Structure formats: structure tokens, C-alpha cells
Amino acid sequence: MRILRWLIAKYYVCKEAFLLRIVAWAKRHERIAKYYWFREALLLRLARPSSSPVGLLPTYQVYPDFRFENIPSLQIPVTTYPGRLPFRSELCSETHFFLDHYRFWCTQLNDKPRFHRKQWEFVYILQALKERGLLQSTMRGLGFGIGREPLVSFFASQGCEILATDLEIELASELGWTGANQKAQSIGELNASGLCDDEMFRSLVQYQDLDMNNIPVEIKGFDFCWSACSLEHLGSIANGRRFIRNSIQTLVPGGWAVHTTEFNLTSNHHTVDNHPTVIFRKRDIEAIISDVLDDGHFAEPLLLHNGVRVDRHIDAPPYKSEPHLRLQLGRYATTSIGLIVKRVH
């Protein structure tokens, strides 16, 4: 069995290395006819997620100039919703950035598309909720650790009634979360992006201080809830697991929760735990999904991408604005992962 796993691993590594050599050859012959067609077709081929069962094989290939604006086919705006994907509980991957959905949601947020995992998290949450029919009037949403993210404003623009929550200002200040784009000082700042009419925003959005480690029992009855890279800041992996289970209790039966967090690409054994910022391993994500299923609820299956090209670029401090899909955090290479769960009863 060990030899078989090694052979499978070698197959995927050799296959991707061969395709990358073809790309390098094509770039050295830019005058050949239909070069751009050839390149884009090959990029899409490379962007397919690998289904390798041998786990993640992160490397440190460098693509410092890989930018959204440098790819001709990605400059075409998308203004009409492209439809379902659908997303699973999965890693941030270069694959997603080549989909029409990515440019569509960036347009909706009035944001310039770029290869950045934080922007991907917003796109992931929006697509997951949209394809489940939750971005419409009469729906009630609950946001955890919202900081100054634009999602609150966008959800309100769709007619959703939103309760936005975050740490109280004193505790957030002690933890260093009151810097730029980390903590809203007033409810008005949650509509700083201008995605929603001010009067409509005030009628649909409420704010409440809330500790994600201690969700009050009266916070319930929502059609959906979400958090963007917040549950890794709860002090421990155990606290993050507990939060996922507790967040489901804020939903009505049939309601959906979508959360993103940090994922350890380097190790399934060693990681950062009991720290202001923890890093979830594959085994931790599997445990979270197991918790959800054991409680009688539903979780989208876990899908891990080995990654190609810019997925193999590990951004090191000082971090760049692009490409920034995977980064170095101390000893570990990390990226973002999304989780989608449903309350059944």
C-alpha cells in the first residue's frame, strides 16, 4: 500500500511538472500563431483541481508577477449571475479565479478582482449563499466577527435583514483588532462601501457586541450565518470546533452556515494551537465535519486541491497584495478554507 501511494504521488507530480514545462516552452515562443488561445486553454486545463488521494504536496515555486490584470481572458466583465457551481467545503484555489463567478461577485462588491485569498473568502461566502437561495428579501442573516467587511452592506442591498456582530471595542482593542479594516467603530462604517442605500441599510441592519466563544441563547432564528476568517482567532482549535456547532444553533431548521478559516498545508500533525491565531489541519476540519454529522446535520464534503502554478506560490512576509493565495505563517504554509453546513432539525 505504501508503494502504491508513492507511485500515485509521483504520477500527479510528474503530470503537473510536464504541463508546466509546456507552459514555459509556449511563453518562450510568443510569436507562434494562436499563442494566447493555446495558453488560456492550457491554463484552464492546469486549473482543474487534482483528486489525488495522497494529500497535499505544497512546493515553493515562485510566480511573483502572476496578476489578474495580466491575463487577457480575465479582463472581460461579468454582470450576469453565471449560475450554480456548486461550492463544497474546500480550499481556496486558482481554479476559482478563472470562473465567471469570481468576476461577477467582485463586480457586485465594486472591487477589482485579484489573486488574493481574502477576496476569495467573500466570493466563496456569496456564491455559497446565492446558490442556496438565501440572498433575497425576507431572509435573516447573522454575521460573526464582521470587522469592516463589505458583506453586511451587500446582503442588506439584497433585502436581507442582518444582525452584524463583533467583539466589544474594549476587548477588541486589547487583542489588537481595532486597526485598519479590522473593527468598525460605528454601524455606519459597515456601509462604507456604499453598496446599499443608507436608508435601506439603517432599516435592515442591526449591530450587537458578541463573543463568538459565548453566543447568547437568544441569538437564534436566522436563515443563514457566516464568518470570514474569524474562528481561528478564538484562542484554540477546540474553541473553533465548538463555535461551528454553536453557530448552527442560531439557525432555523433548513438554515445554512458558511465559514472560512486558516488551513495548514504543511502538516496534518503539527500546527499552531492555543494561540491568538490557530491553524486548522486536515484532521481538524474532518473532526468539525464529523461533529456536524454526529449532531444530525449536513456538511458539504471536504474537497482538497493539490494546486497548480500560483497555488504553489507561497507568499512570505512582507506579504504582497497579489498573488496571495497561500502564505507562510511561521513554520507553516497556509491558505483559506471554506466550510458549508446546514441545520437539519
Summed up:
This protein is of the alpha/beta class and 345 residues long.
Question: Layout of helices and strands, plus pairs?
Answer:
Layout: H1 2-27, H2 35-46, E1 89-90, H3 94-97, H4 100-108, H5 117-130, E2 140-144, H6 151-157, E3 161-166, H7 169-174, H8 198-204, E4 205-209, E5 222-228, H9 237-248, E6 251-264, H10 282-294, E7 298-299, E8 302-303, E9 314-315, E10 326-329, E11 332-342
Parallel strand pairs: 1-8, 2-3, 2-5, 3-4, 5-6, 9-10
Antiparallel strand pairs: 6-11, 7-11, 10-11
Search tags:
345 residues, Rossmann fold, nine-stranded mixed sheet, 11 strands, 17% strand
Taken from the alpha-carbon principal axes, the silhouette is globular
Highest-level CATH class: Alpha Beta
Task: Tell me how many strands there are.
Answer: 11
Low-confidence stretches: 29-58
Strand content: 15-25%
- Overall structural domain count: 1
CATH architecture: 3-Layer(aba) Sandwich
Class from secondary-structure proportions: alpha/beta
Question: What is the radius of gyration?
Answer: 20 Å
Q: At the fourth CATH level, what is the homologous superfamily?
A: Vaccinia Virus protein VP39
The main β sheet shows up as: 9 strands, mixed
Structure annotation, total helices: 10
Helix content: 25-40%
N- and C-termini, Cα separation = 41 Å
Mean pLDDT: 84
Order of helices and strands: HHEHHHEHEHHEEHEHEEEEE
The quaternary structure here is single chain
CATH domain topology: Rossmann fold
